[in-house]
Write a structure and sequence with these properties.
CATH topology of chain A: MetI-like fold
Shape of chain B: globular
Largest sheet of chain A: none
CATH class of chain A: Mainly Alpha
Oligomer: heterodimer
Largest sheet of chain B: 8 strands, mixed
Radius of gyration of chain A: 23 Å
Structural class of chain B: alpha/beta
Distance between the termini of chain A: 37 Å
CATH superfamily of the largest domain in chain B: Periplasmic binding protein-like II
Structural class of chain A: mainly alpha
CATH architecture of the largest domain in chain B: 3-Layer(aba) Sandwich
Helix content of chain B: 40-55%
CATH class of the largest domain in chain B: Alpha Beta
């Protein structure tokens, strides 16, 4: 019964991972007449001396550090709102979920127009400030490029995590709320002592999925900024694709991937430790 | 579920995987790649980058249809890709040994693909190319690997009336603007205040556009992408004082408000709509621009920034993959497509410079007083081909990043030093890309 899954796992996971491990220690190229040669740790030495790598690592961390708490928190707020028994809540659920079913490439293209110097955002800024404030060229300004991408990324994905929170909220038995209400608790107390503990499993799941999604940031970068301006938005995955595919340095890109793999592994291990079930 | 059934299922899966890999092996054994034979007719695959370019694709299809009708031994099967992902598709196909028999290639990539062994020399009779423009031939290691039906010429489109009103000389082929004249023209045009931006160098362009458009400006300053005496190092030419001067000048155009850090999506449209005063673009835009401004428009060479005016040379060319299972058929097709009438066709329909001087006689636009003669002369007089070296794809992507960093305000010396050391390291680690 497990064989199809095993075959798929071997072909699409085990083999590529093994290849990446092996290739990282060679000078393999995408196109070359010279056979690949084992070069030991050369790729890693070069990598750790490459300022673009450190910029990629920094940007990836920055993105994750903002996106993980903000997106999770915002999604929870939205979930609480659409969980309330109000008219038209299905309408709001659908609206918040819409960006999720839109392709990230399309979303990125649209937001590129929104962010351009004479785009929607700057028009809005001018309009609400009666011309006193001028927006900037969001994606080409080194100080605003990454925040701009963070905002759009959260906007796109928040609906997905809202749904997850919502499913968590609905597993909490209504009797608990009724009992708490009889005890004369405030709304905040009900959230703090009923809702929050009831969401333990959901919390862990959301933390892990958002973190992994945030660390593998690529599409928005590829469509909107190509890592610029001045390396302010380059990320680990973007760097791996650029060096491996466009620059044809398969071995070097494999080294980037390997470092990225270890990095994600470490982050996940820390998260596992922090969210472990304490006795 | 019993163990027996589980074993049967695993066995079935193993058989299935084995069978499918066997099929793959069979098909590649029997036909090599890019061609297959059935009922005595050999079908050859042909790839082109013109997926998003209806006009050019129509001519590609016409040539293929003519060839298929002209004989019954071979049938060419055309597949079109969008340009943005074409190089990636070919690289991936090459790595997977699934290249088609005939494919078009952007000129500067030919040496890299030839070096990697993905292209076979055309080995066509010499007289096939006796009238061919040199910039439209992919000649590597003294062998012809590709030829193109056309070339394009970069130029700056300006309006004579606009320049005359503000007292700026309209440059000519023989006398381009000097740097002083160009800077003065920009200042005057900006002071006039009629344009959103004075200059459009196509800064929103990505990929190959950046080296195609900006390395000639760098060369005009006296720098280059690589030292062309031995193609082993970019030191001094890409990070010397001339190159730093170029980078500083590029950034100053943005800092002075002459051009946008990211220009509009279509520079031709912006120029035609009067949003920009000078647009740096290719001869492909000439039809659209002439349609709007008629005789008022002048297509002039880019400025001479110290080392003479320069423009890029070399466009898309046809080549033959070395894995092709039916090279004879592919050669027959390539020879068929090299007829003068097709050079005429490409040039007439697309306004491109014919890659074969024999075609000029049939093209009034390119005759001595033709309206596009200027492009032919630009190409003959100022075209510099991008470095003919297998290192080119690496040089190109490195230079692309450097350009973007410079336009974004990066420190010229730091950016160019990094690009130079990256290129030098790459060449060294590839054994100098020796054949």
């Amino acid at each position: 019964m497990a064989s199809p899954a095993v075959v798929l796992l071997v072909v699409f996971f085990v083999v590529p991972v093994a290849l990446a491990f092996g290739l990282a220690f060679t000078n393999a190229r995408l196109i070359s007449r010279r056979p690949a040669r084992v070069v030991g740790f050369d790729n890693f030495v070069q990598l750790f001396g490459d300022p673009v790598f450190w910029a990629s690592l920094r940007n990836t961390l920055y993105f994750a550090a903002v996106v993980v708490p903000v997106q999770a928190g915002l999604a929870l707020v939205l979930a609480l709102l659409v969980n309330a028994k109000v008219r038209g809540r299905n309408f709001f659920r659908t609206v918040y979920f819409l960006p999720v079913v839109t392709s990230m490439v399309v979303v990125s293209l649209l937001w590129r127009f929104i962010y351009q110097p004479d785009g929607l955002l700057n028009h809005v800024i001018r309009a609400v400030s009666f011309g006193h404030w001028q927006g900037t060229d969001w994606l080409n300004n080194p100080d605003t490029a990454m925040p701009a991408i963070i905002v759009l990324s959260i906007w796109q994905a928040v609906g997905f995590h809202m749904i997850i929170w919502l499913s968590g909220l609905q597993t909490i038995p209504p009797e608990l709320y009724e009992a708490a209400e009889l005890d004369g608790t405030s709304t905040w107390q009900r959230f703090r002592f009923v809702t929050w503990p009831g969401l333990l499993a959901t919390r862990t799941f959301i933390l892990v999925t958002i973190t992994i999604a945030a660390l593998s940031l690529f599409t928005q970068i590829s469509v909107m900024t190509q890592g610029g301006p001045l390396d302010r938005t380059t990320t680990m995955v973007f760097m791996a694709v650029r060096t491996g595919y466009e620059q044809q340095q398969t071995g070097y890109a494999a080294a980037v991937s390997l470092v990225f793999f270890v990095f994600v592994l470490l982050v996940s291990a820390v998260q596992r430790f922090v969210t472990r079930e304490k006795d | 579920m019993s163990h027996h059934r589980i074993h049967r299922r695993i066995a079935a899966a193993v058989v299935l995987v084995a069978a499918s890999s066997g099929l793959v092996a069979c098909s590649s054994d029997s036909s090599g790649t890019g061609a297959s034979t059935a009922d005595g007719v050999t079908t050859l695959k042909l790839w082109t980058h013109n997926g998003g370019n209806a006009q050019e694709l129509a001519i590609n299809k016409q040539v293929v249809a003519d060839f298929n009708a002209s004989q019954s031994k071979y049938k060419v099967d055309l597949q079109a890709f969008p340009q943005a992902s074409y190089n990636d598709a070919v690289t991936a196909a090459a790595a997977a040994k699934k290249l088609p028999c005939v494919l078009d290639i952007d000129g500067p990539n030919v040496p890299n693909w030839a070096w990697a062994g993905y292209l076979a020399p055309l080995d066509l009779p010499e007289e096939t190319f006796k009238d061919q423009l040199p910039s439209t031939m992919g000649k590597v290691d003294d062998k012809v690997y590709s030829f193109g039906h056309y070339d394009v010429a970069l130029n700056m489109a300006v309006r004579k009336s606009v320049l005359t009103t503000i007292g700026v000389r309209v440059p000519t082929i023989d006398k381009p603007w000097t740097r002083t004249e160009f800077d003065a023209a920009l200042a005057k045009l900006k002071a006039g205040g009629k344009y959103r931006y004075t200059l459009d160098l196509g800064t929103s362009g990505t990929g190959e556009w950046l080296p195609y458009a900006y390395s000639p400006l760098l060369q005009s300053f006296g720098g280059d992408l690589i030292n062309r005496s031995d193609y082993k190092s970019a030191a001094d030419v890409l990070n010397g004082p001339k190159a730093i001067e170029w980078a500083t000048w590029m950034r100053s155009l943005i800092a002075n408000g002459y051009m946008a850090q990211k220009s509009g999506a279509d520079g031709t449209v912006d120029f035609v709509n009067g949003k920009t005063a000078i647009v740096y673009t290719g001869s492909w835009a000439a039809d659209a621009i002439t349609k709007k401004y008629g005789g008022d428009v002048a297509f002039v060479p880019p400025p001479d920034l110290g080392n003479g005016a320069k423009i890029g040379g070399g466009s898309w060319q046809w080549g033959l993959s070395s894995d092709c299972a039916a090279k004879d058929g592919a050669r027959e097709y390539l020879k068929f497509s090299a007829q003068t009438k097709y050079f005429v066709e490409y040039s007439q329909k697309l306004g491109l410079i014919p890659g074969n001087t024999a075609a000029v006689d049939q093209l009034p636009n390119f005759a001595a007083d033709g309206k596009y003669r200027v492009f032919l002369e630009l190409a003959q007089k100022y075209a510099v081909v991008r470095p003919v070296t297998p290192a080119y794809p690496f040089i190109s992507t490195t230079f692309q990043k450097a350009c973007q960093d410079i336009l974004a305000g990066g420190d010229p010396k730091k950016v160019l030093d990094k690009a130079t050391s990256d290129i030098d390291n790459n060449i060294k680690s590839n054994g100098d890309y020796q054949f």
